[in-house]
TrEMBL record:
InterPro entries: DinF-like, MATE_fam. It is found in: Membrane. The keyword Transmembrane helix applies. Belongs to the multi antimicrobial extrusion (MATE) (TC 2.A.66.1) family. This is MATE family efflux transporter. The chain crosses the membrane at residues 20-41, 53-75, 103-128, 140-164, 176-195, 201-223, 244-265, 271-293, 323-350, 362-384, 396-414, 420-438. It is a multi-pass membrane protein. It comes from Nitratireductor rhodophyticola. Keywords: Membrane, Transmembrane, Transmembrane helix.
Length: 448
């Protein structure tokens, strides 16, 4: 099914410039960086206890959390693409309707996740197969943090709406408030009050709640005078079918990527607690690099979606070229930074000498992964904005199958080095396969 079928077939020309790209990319780069910095802060807080089992439990718990909740990341990315296309059409009522549909799905999905919490925890403990001390820490972390599910998913929908309109600065403010509150609460509860890993989990719950309330306040102020979208439009069947189909594809793609992360962590656990903790620290570096690149990917989402909605091919081509160029430039800069500063960052995060030594050994793999993954990040942005979700799903499944094969053979021969090599291969194949599809999809979309 082709999901890129704008209702308005009248062209709405607009110009894509470096300034327009950066007006979205720069604030959102800063905004996204607060999320992995949050992961590093949590790791650093727990790392002050000098217990590798607690670090491993935090890493394993974060993976469980991501597998459950980031599977619903379509509530952010899917909303961005649909709102951007409505924005390109100049259809303010449809922008609102997309938001309300996403909020309803977020609330229902979040409540369901909370109800399934005990099964999620049991499944996570079984899947990770970690040592008893690691499993106990993971159980304590997930059982608290999972309570924030409805609030977290609502925040995804609100951010998706904001980014779909290209409002990068507002997105930055919302993310800064959410993650800043999270870090402050986690430090206070875990270190000042001595709540340990439970304090970090409760800090996350509090930060998500404050972020949601701020987002609703912004929406209430924005919609207080404008036209109100009708319930009939919100529950428009063809549009809901389109949204569900697209979100299903994105969910499969996201789940496959999260499964790759989970298998990476699980395989690291088989190499021992020290290697698991070292990989957890280095994976935070990768997340920093990934979120650093997500700024330009978000610009690609908004501008590609807007161009499809406006039915204006020149803007689409220009947004593709500029966002990819900026993405590669930032990826190279990030890799150089991590190669130079990585050992100092590792020493800051953990006091455990054995974990430091292991992390330093595998640092180059983590430092260079932003270059391996930049094309995949940028193409994700383009395909989400254009709502070419079926292709995203198919290329992700292909890349994941290759990753599994590499995981099996490379780890047997090269241990943890092989594990990192397999992850690089996953990202490279995804980027190249998506890029190869762009010309044919573009011809179809702008010929309709």
């Amino acid at each position: 099914m082709d999901h890129a079928q704008p209702q308005d077939r009248v062209s709405h020309p607009f110009t894509v410039t470096n300034r327009l790209v950066l007006s979205i990319a720069l604030p959102m780069t800063l905004a996204y960086l607060t999320t992995p910095l949050l992961g590093i802060a949590d790791t650093a807080i727990v790392g002050q206890y000098g217990d590798a089992a607690l670090l491993g439990g935090l890493a394993a718990g974060a993976i469980v959390f991501d597998v459950v909740f980031t599977t619903f990341n379509f509530l952010r990315s899917g909303t961005t693409g649909l709102v951007a296309q409505a924005y390109g059409q100049g259809n303010a009522l449809e922008e609102q309707a997309v938001l309300w549909r996403a909020l309803l799905v977020a609330l229902a999905a979040g409540v369901l996740v909370v109800l399934l919490g005990p099964f999620v925890i049991a499944g996570g403990v079984y899947f990770m197969g970690a040592e008893p001390e690691v499993a106990a820490a993971m159980r304590a972390y997930v059982s608290i943090r999972i309570l924030a599910a409805p609030v977290s998913l609502i925040n995804y929908a609100i951010l998706g709406y904001v980014l779909g309109r290209g409002e990068g600065v507002l997105g930055l403010v919302l993310q800064f408030i959410l993650n800043g509150t999270n870090i402050a609460l986690s430090m206070f509860l875990a270190l000042s009050l001595g709540w340990g890993i439970e304090g970090v989990a409760w800090g996350t719950v509090g930060g998500e709640a404050v972020g949601m309330l701020t987002g609703f306040a912004v929406l209430a102020w924005r919609f207080r005078r404008g036209p109100r979208v009708s319930l009939r439009r919100v529950f428009d069947t063809p549009r809901i079918v389109r949204m569900v189909a697209m979100n299903g594809d994105i969910m499969i793609r996201s789940f496959s990527l999260l499964a790759a992360f989970a298998l990476f962590t699980r395989q690291g656990a088989q190499f021992g607690t020290v290697t698991l903790a070292a990989n957890a620290i280095l994976m935070n570096f990768f997340l920093v690099a990934g979120y650093f690149l997500d700024g330009t990917a978000t610009a690609a989402e908004q501008l590609a979606g807007r161009a499809v909605g406006a039915r204006y091919r020149p803007a689409f081509l220009r947004s593709l070229r500029l966002t990819v160029a900026w993405g590669f430039g930032l990826a190279i800069a990030m890799s150089l930074f991590l190669l130079l500063a990585g050992e100092a960052l590792i020493a800051f995060i953990t006091t455990a000498q054995d974990v430091r030594m292991a992390a330093n050994t595998f640092l180059p793999w983590a430092a260079l992964i932003s270059i391996s993954g930049v094309l995949a990040f940028q193409m994700d942005g383009v395909f989400i904005g254009a709502t070419w979700s079926r292709d995203m799903r198919n290329t992700m499944l292909l890349s994941f199958a290759l990753y599994l094969a590499c995981l099996f053979f490379l780890t047997r021969s090269f241990g943890n080095h092989g594990l990192w090599a397999a992850f690089h291969i996953l990202l490279i194949v995804r980027g190249i396969s998506l890029f190869a599809i762009v010309p044919s999809r573009m011809r179809r979309t702008f010929a309709e």
